[in-house]
């Protein structure tokens, strides 16, 4: 891996649980994000996508491997150092459901500006930056005076993204950011991510839906049972997938394929996948 990476994950292992229930969830994951790059991380529910994100953020302790942001090793840090890193905002996280991250009793402006107030930024500057970030995510700054319950799901998700962006993070991790939205709000948020892709923000877009990732990312990682089985330019992964699991995912995405795969083709791909794992 070259030195121009803003995020480097190397040979990452994560075990969850204890005793006989202990599971090897992430197995030797290795990838990097370059500055300004938009990378998709796709896989079925339970494949370990969110666990990788939580390991990067220090919310899950890796059992092995390396995580570096701007060349600084994170895995060996203490819990206090991890908390300080999150407060500094170098890596920010956007949840699938914005209601999990937006306090229903706080006005939008208070929630978006909270990371700056924690740093001791003056109130006038906080208000100015809040307005700037709301405009950046295509929202009227007047919404700063509203409560989350007064807004649509798509507006709330864009507000969660604005709060993540206000610290000017080096990496923005989005965990299934559109899966809880209706079609109209889904399109609005995906368009916003396309705009962010054209800026200097480095994105890690986590999803089970390759169709959502395809139009937003430069490169796609495919995760299967805790292992990254494919890593390449998104156009190549979509049009010429190398791994049978990726071909199964594409066959299940009608927006990426003229027709769904039939039972016989699916069975052949499953057999090929089993052979590749053997």
From TrEMBL:
Family to which this protein belongs: Belongs to the ABC transporter superfamily.
Lineage: Bacteria, Bacillati, Actinomycetota, Actinomycetes, Micrococcales
Pfam families: ABC_tran, oligo_HPY
Species name: Agrococcus jejuensis
UniProt keywords, alphabetically: ATP-binding, Nucleotide-binding, Transport
GO BP terms in the entry: peptide transport; transmembrane transport
Domain ABC transporter stretches: 9-250
A molecular function GO annotation: ATP hydrolysis activity
UniProt xrefs under SMART domains: AAA
Protein name listed in UniProt: Oligopeptide/dipeptide transporter, C-terminal region
